[in-house]
Amino acid sequence: MKVVSLVCPQCNSNLDVEEGRKECFCQYCGAHIVVDDETKKNVHQISYRNEAKIKAAEVRIKELEQQLEMEKLRQQQENAPSFRKTLRSILIAVTCITAIICISGAFGVDIPSNVITMSMAICVVTFLYLVITGIIGGLKNLFK
User: Fold this and answer.
1) Domain span holding position 105
2) Do 27 and 58 fall within a single domain?
3) Which of 8, 65, 94, 105 could staple 111 via S-S, CB 3.0–4.6 A?
């Protein structure tokens, strides 16, 4: 089969096309070309679409979307522990204060019984919270 040389009207690259073909695609820029049978010199571009560049752009968009999603998750994870640490610190401070109140009452300091009862309840609830969150955190680490 004979090969005819043409020039792409889009990028001016030299193309080799089989004789008798009515249309082809430029292997360099992706232009869709219609070949004039009589002269083989009059070529017309129908459309231009570089599929490789389009596919590469689509892949890059997906990569960027995944990176953005990962960054959002990372920021959420960074913010969550700091909140938990702050809450835990506050609870520990409250527990220490209530423990001091309870101990003071045990050594004869005149503290109303309802304050001591409330302090003991706060100590118990805080202790339970710390134990439960510790257990849950440990379980989360086991299943990572």
Assistant:
1) 53-142
2) no
3) 105
Which pair of tokens denotes residue 95?
């527990």
Given a contact cutoff of 8 angstroms between Cβ atoms, the answer to whether 23 and 46 are in contact is yes
Two structure tokens written together for 54: 């389009």
Task: Confirm if 14 and 7 have CB atoms less than 8 A apart.
Answer: yes
Q: Is the same domain home to 58 and 129? A: yes
- Which of 17-45 are b and which e, b meaning 16 or more Cβ less than 10 Å from the residue's Cβ? beeeeeebbbeebbbebebeeeeeeebee
Is 60 in the same domain as 114?
A: yes
Note whether 44 and 75 are same-domain residues. Answer: no
